[in-house]
Recover the amino acids of this structure.
């Protein structure tokens, strides 16, 4: 007997992601999936961003293989922070995020940031049900990273070039970055920031705030 | 990609489906990966060899195919093979995001008794 299934083996995650998206929309919570390589500046960016969003109810889920160091850094700046230790898994999945949304009462938040595992490959393949993705590339990583790991950058709503204060010491070409990114996705919002000097952060904060306003307006209409 | 996770998903899917149909033994399994699915065939075969002991597919003949990726440009409607890193239409340069069917891995069919 032959049985045709045509069953996508990653369908389970996609089903969970759709459920997350629905429940976030019903509760008017904006979820942002923050991705990038280890050390690109995700946690530091979130520290600065959470401080700028202090007028809102903000929670964070942080994914790392081990330690709660990032959660400890973010705790003073948000209502709730949850550290997920995967102990080996290289990405977060929608099902687990969905459980945390309910069990940890995260749907009362205006914004939920998910700091994904530091990895340019796997997180791109797993929809968490987020409203949008933000991809970081520090200028110390080199111009070739978006070309080498296109899905992560292409499918983001915003890309941040971080550590711009190190520009005098790097060969990084921001024009080349913007050209490559726009070829991948002409609608990408690109920000060049330094969390150390504060350069470029205000437009990023304003953009996040505007995304939240769009979400609130669409919920009330 | 995550070849071990894929194998786990294969085993769970087949155990459930074969049980619902009263199939006791799976003799053949055909898996298809989209060309852009980032599946390493050798890694998948390695995972399959080492993880299937004691499962419903322990004695199954497993075949693996790659499906060529084709996309239709939403702007100029040209059919083209999307190539990383830009996945641009060769006709009008529009950048597309590859469709799920070109990035997915799925069980095409299985045979059992």
């Amino acid at each position: 007997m032959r049985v045709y299934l045509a069953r996508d083996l990653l369908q389970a995650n996609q089903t969970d992601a759709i459920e997350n998206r629905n429940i976030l929309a019903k509760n008017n919570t904006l979820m942002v999936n923050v991705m990038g390589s280890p050390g690109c500046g995700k946690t530091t960016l979130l520290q600065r961003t959470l401080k700028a969003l202090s007028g809102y109810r903000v929670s964070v889920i942080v994914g790392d293989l081990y330690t709660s160091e990032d959660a400890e850094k973010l705790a003073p700046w948000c209502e709730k922070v949850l550290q997920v230790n995967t102990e080996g898994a290289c990405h977060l999945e929608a099902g687990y995020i969905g459980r945390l949304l309910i069990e940890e009462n995260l749907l009362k938040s205006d914004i939920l940031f998910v700091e994904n595992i530091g990895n340019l490959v796997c997180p791109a393949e797993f929809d968490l049900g987020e409203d949008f993705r933000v991809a970081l590339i520090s200028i110390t990583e080199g111009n070739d990273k978006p070309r080498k790991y296109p899905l992560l950058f292409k499918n983001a709503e915003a890309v941040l070039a971080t550590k711009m204060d190190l520009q005098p010491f790097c060969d990084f070409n921001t024009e080349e970055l913007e050209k490559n990114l726009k070829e991948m996705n002409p609608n990408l919002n690109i920000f060049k920031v330094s969390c150390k000097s504060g350069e470029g952060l205000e437009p990023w904060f304003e953009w996040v705030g505007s995304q939240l306003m769009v979400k609130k307006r669409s919920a009330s209409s | 990609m995550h070849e071990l996770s894929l194998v786990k998903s294969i085993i769970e899917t087949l155990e459930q489906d074969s049980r619902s149909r009263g199939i006791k033994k799976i003799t053949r399994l055909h898996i298809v990966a989209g060309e852009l699915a980032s599946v390493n065939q050798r890694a998948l075969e390695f995972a399959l060899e080492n993880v299937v002991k004691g499962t419903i597919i322990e004695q199954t003949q497993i075949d693996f195919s790659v499906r060529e990726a084709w996309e239709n440009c939403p702007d100029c409607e040209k059919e083209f093979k999307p190539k990383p890193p830009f996945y641009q239409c060769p006709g009008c340069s529009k950048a597309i995001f590859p469709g799920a069917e070109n990035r997915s891995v799925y069980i095409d069919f299985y045979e059992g008794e």
About this structure: The beta strands of chain A are 2-8, 30-35, 58-64, 80-85, 111-115, 132-138, 158-162, 189-192.
